[in-house]
Amino acid sequence: MIITTERLHYLWAVAETGSFSAAGERLGVTGAAVQQVIRQMEDDLEASLFHRGAGRRPELTELGRQFYFHALDIIPRLEGLERMASLCRQGQEEVLHIGVHAFVMTPEVMVALTQLQQQFPLLELFLYDAEDCVLHCDKLRLLDKSARHTVDVLLAPARMRYDHGGQSITAGRIVWRVAVSASHPLSRLRGEVSLDDLLQYPQLLPMPGVISSDAFYESFRLSSRLIHYSQFYQLQEMLLAGMGFAVMPEQIALPLVRHGRLRLLELDFDDGASSTAVELAWVNPLGAAGEWLVERLRSAAPGADVLFSGNVGRFQDRRS
Fold this sequence. Notes:
Elements: H1 5-17, H2 20-27, H3 31-45, E1 50-51, E2 59-60, H4 62-90, E3 95-100, H5 107-119, E4 124-129, E5 133-135, H6 139-143, E6 149-151, E7 153-157, E8 167-181, H7 195-199, E9 203-206, H8 214-218, E10 226-229, H9 232-240, E11 245-249, H10 250-258, E12 262-264, E13 275-282, H11 288-299
Parallel strand pairs: 3-4, 3-7, 5-6, 9-10, 9-11
Antiparallel strand pairs: 1-2, 7-13, 8-11, 8-12, 8-13
Helix pairs in contact: 1-2, 1-3, 1-4, 2-3, 5-11
């Protein structure tokens, strides 16, 4: 056979590096071995693939360019097949679909995702907003077509349903706090803030999605003046701009508090901690990477209070 994967790889390497010796270094062979493979291919073709000359770089001939452009298309596909075969031998899935709610995207979760990438460098990750997701085994929610994406692993404020067809555990708790920009008038009030104080200003309130219902977000309503948002980045930008106050996870707000950009308010009408369980749900079975991530998140939350730990706030949990 004249055209083999080895010959295409060698031609591609010479064209990319500009020399036979450099191509050999890239391929892990000697420059002489590269020249021999290319020469054998040219002999079989009865045509030259490179212009050669003393003291000059090998340059592709017209025929060589045609083979090179075909190699650019073929080699990535071959590498993809090799990657698939390697993952198959390791028992690892090629792709992992993960849904994470913005309210649980804490630094600890990001560490887990970073470690997942390091542990499985060949894994292709798809990360979605959990408000648009269901597990791909959740037949009931797939029928109503409310979700745009199906995922293998889902991390979100808990619904703790047992009819989604997968497995789930409590993986920590969200601590809710009322936050305002450091420039907002509420941040200048001394002492505890009253409900009457809050009623004077707009509140930034999320729109419901697949995960969170109207009733869930209405339970956090503290003002008759509302600005609704659908994406977490909108909340952060409007909050920092001083457009209103918001109920948000303390764990998400703390980095901005430490940098002096947000302030967490103490309320005079609440004497307890507000928290919501976080649910980690996944399909069964998972591949090696998915199992690793689930175990990483589970081990990081013994007693269900580590992944989403934080100082206790004073906003009453109206869901309880």
